[in-house]
Structures are given as C-alpha cells and as structure tokens.
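Sample 1 of the test manifest.
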Amino acid sequence: MFSQRRNLIFLFFGIVGLLFIGKLFFLQVIDDTYEKAADNNAIRKIIQIPFRGEVYDRYGKLIVYNTPVYDLYMIPRKAVVKDTNHFCRVFRVTKEYFIKTTQRARAYSRVKPSLFLKHLSKEDFASVQDAMVDFPGFFFETNAFRTYQSHSFSNALGYVAEISPTALEDQKDDYYRQGDYVGISGIESFYEETLRGQRGVKYRMVNSNGVEKGDYKNGSLNINPISGNNLYTSIDLAIQEYADSLMQHKVGSLVAIEPSTGEILAMVSAPSYDASQLTGNNFSKYYQQLALDPMKPLLNRPPSAYYRPGSTFKLVQALVGQQLGFIGPGTVFSHAGAPVKCHGHGPVDLRGAIRVSCNPYFYHAFRKMIYDNTTGDTYERSAKGLQRWADLVANFGFGRKLGVDLGNEKKGILPNVEYYNSVYKGEKMWKFSNIYSISIGEGEIVVSPLKMANLAAIIANRGWYIPPHVVKGVGLQKSIDPFYKTPVKVGVESKYFNVVIDGMEDAVTHGTVEADGRIPDIKMVGKTGTSQNQKGKDHSIFIAFAPRDNPKIAIAVFVENAGFGGSAAAPIASLVVEKYLKRKVDRKAVETKFMNMNYLPNAYSVVRKKAAPDSTKK
Amino acid sequence: MTDSNHIQGRIDWITVGFYVLFVGLGWLNIYSAVYSPDAPLAFSDPAFYNSNAGKQLVWIGTSFVLIICILVIDFRFFESFALFIYLGLLLLLIAVPFLGVTINGSHSWFKFGSVTIQPAEFAKTATALLLAKYLNDPLVNLTKFPFQWKAALIIGIPMVLIIGSNETGSALVFASFMILLYREGLPGAYPALFIGGIVLFVSALLVQAWIILLVLVILAGLLVLFMPIYMQRDPKTYLRLSGAIAGIMTLALLVDWVVNNVLKEHQRNRIRVLIDPGFDPRGLGYQVTQSKIAIGSGGFWGKGFLGGTQTKFDFVPEQSTDMVFCTIGEEHGFVGVLLMIIFFLGFLWRLMYLADLQRSRFARAYGFGLVGILFFHFLVNIGMTIGLMPIMGIPLPFFSYGGSSLWSFTILLFIFLKLDSHRSDMLSR
Ligand SMILES: [Zn+2]
C-alpha cells in the first residue's frame, strides 16, 4: 500500500535540493557581489592597548608618561602598491626592506595583517596620512612608548618590554598575548596590573581599500579600553637627581626614607642606565649591552644587592643587647681577650663604643648575649643564646623581606641556629667562637642597602617602622595598601635608643665620620661601616638620620670598594641630607669633590680578578 | 525467541558510514568556526575542552556510548515502551518551565551539573515512536477522520507544550510528521493543503487581505470557466465548488487574522526579512545578509579549511550551531555544498529504502518519521542560511554544534538502525 509514495516524497526532496543547489550556484558562482561584499564587509578586530598609568613624584612632578607611536600593518591580499618607489619615498624605507618585509608578510598569511613598519612618530604619521589613499591594504595601529622626564631613578622604576616567552607561558590569567608589553622590574613590574589598565576591543567594518566604514553592529560588541591607574610616588625628584649625580662614577646604592611614613624619598642604584633607550627600536641592542656590563647596571641594588653591614650592625647589637638586659649605658669593656682588631684606645662605655666603633666592645657584648644562659655545654648554650638573639634581630627586618613595593627584593641572611646547623652540618657542631664575626656585622650576615636605611628609620623613630615603599597613592583615589600605613614595632623599648643615638651623634661630630661628612647647621647622627669583601677594597657604608630631634630623613649609602665608611659614604649621605632639609647645599667644595670622585677603577679591578681568579693566588 | 546479540552483521553500515562522515565533517567545521589564528589551541591544552570544538568532541564521544546502549537494548523495547517514553517526555516538557534554566533566552533546558539537556529535542523521537506504534495497529486507516484526529493529537500535544516554552522552531519540526502520515496513507490533499496554507500565510504577511481574496475569486472564476469537460456542470457541482471556494476564503481570512493578531512582531519580521533583506539591516536582515555574504564569498572552490574570513570572530551569529552551513559554504565553496547536499539526499534515500524494506509497519512508520524530521531540519536550516527560509533556531542534523541536538539525532537514527537490524525478526501484522 502506498509504496509508490516513497518516490513522490523523494521527488519533493529532490526539488528542494535542486532549489538549494540553484540558489547556491547563483550565490557562489554567478553573482560576485557577495565576494565583493565580503571584502567590503571585512570586520577587523582591533585590540586597543590602553595608556599605561603615569608616574609622578611626591610633589606631582611627572616622572614617566606615554608618547603615542604608530605601527604600520599590511594585509598582503589587499595591499596593492602600484609605485614602489613612491611608497619607499613616503615611508622612508629602502626597496630591499619593502621587498623583504612584503615577502615575509605574504609567507605568514595572505589575509591576516602583518607588522610592516614599527614605531612611527606622531610627525611621521601625520606626514604620510594624505598618501595613505594610494596604498590600500595598509593601515595604522596606535601604540605608546614609555617616556621618561628624567634620566634618574631608572632602576627603581623598572622598564617595560615585550613579554618573554616564558612569562607568556607562566601567566595565570591568560591576559597577555605575544608581543604585548609588560613591566619588567621595579615599580613597573610590581604595579603591572594597576598600570596596564584593561585592554579594549573594537570591531570595525573595513572595506577593501582598508578604509574603515564604521563600527560593526554600531559598536555594541566593542569593549572600551580602561587606562591604567597613575602612580603617585613618594620620590622627591630633585633629591633623586641630586643623589644620582653624587653616585656617578661609583658602584653602590643610596636609599633615603622619611622615617615617620616609611616613604622612600630617593633610591639610587649605581651604575644606572638610560631608561629612555630601553623603549622602542633600540631595545635589544641597548639591553644586550647592559646585560653584558660587568657592573650590572640593570640590577636594582637597594633591595637586591647583598652586602655585609659591617660596623653599622653594631647599632643593632647595642639595641638588642640592652633589650635582652646584658649591657647598658654604663657597661664598659676593654680590648682584652677579644680576637678582633681595634684602634689604640682605653676601655669605653656603650656610647663611646659606638662613637669609635670599637670592635672588642661588641665582641664582648655579643659573647654575653650568646653565652649567658644555663642550658648545658658551650654548644648548647651557643644555640640557645643565638636563637634568642636572632628572634629579636629578625624584628628589624633582617633575614626576611621588608615588603617594599619593588620587584626582586632579596631576603638577605640573618644567621640563626638552623642556618649554622646546616653550615656546620649538624647540631652542636658550632659555638660562639665559630660565629663571633657577626657581632661586628661581618661573617655570615648579609643585608641590602634598603634594610640599612630602614634601620636608620627605626632608630629615628625609636623602635618602629612603616614598611618602606615607593608608591604612596594609586589612581584617582590615591589609595594605598594598609600594609604601607601600619607601623611595625621591633620589640626594643624606646628608652634604649637614647644612648645609641648619643653615640651616633658623637660618631658624626668627633668620631669615625670625617670632616666632609659633617653639616655645620644640621644635627645629623649616623654610623659608619666598612664592609669586608674577599675580592677587593672594602665597601664604604654609612647610615644616618637628621635632624636628631624630629627626624625628617633616614639614609643609607653604600659605595663599593671605596674603603672606609667615614670617608666616602658619609660625605655623600650628608650632602643628600643637607639638600633635602635645606633645599640647597652650601658646602660646594665637598659637593664638587664627591661628584667627581671616581671609585670605578677599584670596582673594575675586582671584576677583573673575578674573571681570572688564578692570577690572585700567585 | 531470537538472538538479539548478533547485530553487527545486520546493521546497515552504509547508513553508519553517512553518520560518521557527517559528524566528522561537522566537527571539522566547528573547529574551523572557533579557530582563532591568533591563539590556536592544542589538544593537550585544557582550554581546548572549553572551546566549542573541544566540547563537541566530548559529545561525539558520549554519542558513541549512547549508540552502544541503543544497540544492546532489546529491539522490542522501543515498541513496547513507546507510550511510556512519550508520557515521560510530556512530563519533562511540562516540568521544564518550573525546573528548567534559561539558555540563550529560551527557558527550555534542564541542567545536570555542567550538562544541559533540552527535552524538546528528544520529544521528536518519542512522538515518532508513539505514532509508529499507533499505526502498527492494522485497523488504523489514515484515510478516515477519527484516526487522523488521533494521530494529530499525538503530534499536537508535545507541539503545544513546546510552543509554550517559546521554542517555535522546535515545535514546527513536528509538521514534518506529515511525511510519515502521508506515506502511511494520509490523503494527498492534506500535504497539499498544508503547503497551500504556508503560501497563504506568507501572502498574509506581505499583502492586504482583500488582495488575497480578490486573487482567490479570480482563480475560482478561472476554474469554473475552464472546468474540465468531464466534470458535470450541474448545480450540485457548482454548490460544492462554491462551498470549497468559500472555505478557502474563510481560511485565508483566518490566516490573515492569525498573522496580524496572534503572531508577535519579531515573528512577523523573520518572514518579512526573507523577501526584503534590507528590511531590518542591523538585526535579522543583518544575520541573513552576513550569512549570504559568507556563503557567497566562498566562490566555486571555497577559501580552504580554516581559511574563512567571514565566519571568524563570531560575526555570523550562532555560526557553530544553527549557522554551521555558512562555514561549509565559505571554506569549501560551491563544490563543498553541492557534495554536502548530494550526500544528505543520498542519506535520506538510503533511509527511505531501508524503511520500505521493513516488514513491521511500526519500523517502517518510524523510519519515515526519522526521514521527515531529518528532511525538515535540512530544509529549514540550509534554507535560512541562503535566505530561502525564515530564521529559526533549528540545527543541521549531525553537523551543528551542541550536545542535545547531536544526542537526540543519534538516538533517533540508531533506534531505527536497531529496528532495521531485526527486520527479519519482526512480523508484519
Ligand atoms: Zn676599641
């Protein structure tokens, strides 16, 4: 029954099929309006990179901003250049470049845009605008360069560069694409997510001549880019530039902090580099040069370099010794029985010991701190004493990160029981006689210049600090992480600071600081340090704060291979302090002397020795 | 008792071949539609399984599990339980407004964990099963009105429920059972009237009612004038003829009233756009235009696999689901779509051939139900991408992206293949 109906049904299907095929033949083969429409209706997805946030100093002076640049792209299928010579003249490229780049673009894709010419300036862009109608298939995309108002402060600022393949691989939220720019170090890296803003997407209808015909779907699919937030730093650009000029021809660091707020006023890493050369076409060449430089100009020394604190660490010993109850202002030690060297002077009290930086004094004080307990044999007592000591010293930020808002902060080393157990391969393998060097800031203890500037701030505040930071406000609200608002107590009562500060005052007025380091009308107190290193001349260290009453600035200066602390670091610190407090420097002779002082030959001789270690042994 | 385990030898491998071909080509098209040259995804990348192509791969895998299940179940199950399956689906359709979730503006989905199921997709299969079971009764004669009425009831109930959940496209698929019923004896006047109704319906949208009436009167006049000689020119004939003409005119007015008063504006627009793509250039017209541009720009040979420019960026809306044909048209050109249409018609021919081999009316009717459903999807889906049909949310069987649609078509097809593999075991009644 009805079995012939199958054929009728299939006839109907066939008619529909033929109808479709006919319509499709018309659409696809006969009528070429759709092919043209496809070209005319091409929708281009344009990624809009928002402007990166700008960076200001503490008085609102611009440090970093953006300059728009223009990248020229080509779509090979649509690019028709009738007169190559004319084209090369307009864009100022050679014919070889034109041919090579066009071939590469064609090899990549015939329909997708390829970068043809990078980083045209606003002026170049304007000059080729009129000629663009002659070059279908070419179009511009806007990009931006970081532009630096000052050549100073480069290391702490960091720089931006194309994201590396490994960083691209490791990213958590899948935001970056190949070729995106990203903050590499310093605050550019630390505040990357704040600075970068939010990328936008624009869908534009473009005809075959590369001329945009408007937003696709009236722009309903577009996502507007959101500019990055500005950063308001605590840097005093004038002081920063001044400090930079003092640190030229030297290797080292300078960090100045406002003690009451933890705000970093200046941060110098020497030698430095010119950040403006790390943007744009010059990047790889200049970067290569910096990366190969034995003086490591790319390293941001203040939070990242390792030094022994030397005698500046005696300040910590004086404070901790008092808090633990083993020494006081009246405690006197002589040189007798101490295996550490000193100058010819008689027994001194605590204040005097700080003034003259007496090594035996702090050897004896540390011995008391380590041994004065009744745990058992000397090994056990050493362990018990060291742990008690190290727990207190750790409060000052040694052996851990302070939490500064810069990339690559290093922890440093605060040797504790665990540390020595691993060095001497077991418990009860070491005692005081093995570790006494740390009593005078030598031996295993390792710090960064930032930690020492923070120590100066702790003493200025008599017992607390706010974690040091470079950025004091983010975005329009100038908001800041409460972490950078909360004081941290170090666990040493404020009364114990009096004698230490007295000693530091004496050190400047008639102690280890030489005349160049004294400011006639400002009461600066400080402590010199001379950090031993195996490779060359000692590093010169000085930490200080001023004025003594109601301190406004705490500072640490490290100058590598410059010898004694009082002779190089202290004068430089004094000049910066004077400039900050008076906004001018009266001691022009000192200023000139230290601006021109060149310690680089010493530093280079160390590098050479490192490069050829055998030669030193002969 | 027959051994129901030895099915491999009797399964129709030609049909299975078509199925594998369609699903495979469909997946390649989905991959191409979501493929982004800026960020190609590797199979090893977990993100791949969040893309449409990755998810479709998972659904294809699970479809094979479904196929195994269907082939293992006893073939008598489908006939015996047809009523239960049908009632179960009705229950789900009733429950979905209360327990379902909304996806893409249609409140017709159930969500189980990360899997979403649209019961409307499966209602087709259930209805085909029950309809086939009903027709298996040799007393059922579709030339008689009471039986027609009952068959219409079986089709109508799920249809009304689906319209209730605002899935007009899925509901219209039930019109395809006309093919099943026609094959099983429904008088040809019904399909003719059905097609005539559609013509009236479209006319009602485009011209005023009085023009339609005028045209009908003129047609009737011409009919009377050129009435064949062998027809008796007596008053009875004239009376009957006038009655028929009056009936048709009433129908025309009714359709006109439905179109202008019952349909919503956006539903009317979908059809108006067909005639004049410039009618709503930014909305519906845009979709039709974009889709035509994508297909038209493919030319004779196409732009090559992954080479499409128009179907990238998600600009042809629903390009992986309902508009997947655009990708074929753009990337494989006229040659590609020609082959695709020929293959699909060949597939339908094979299924009808198999259906007519069945001894049991149940299996045969089910087979034609399957053919009707597949054809309706083919007709509407391709028709809308080339501007011959209104835009309706209807997938292209086996090709379109989506778990519910792939699963439902797989089940629909393989139940028939299961029945077919036992055709010698079934008795024709
Ligand atoms: Zn001494």
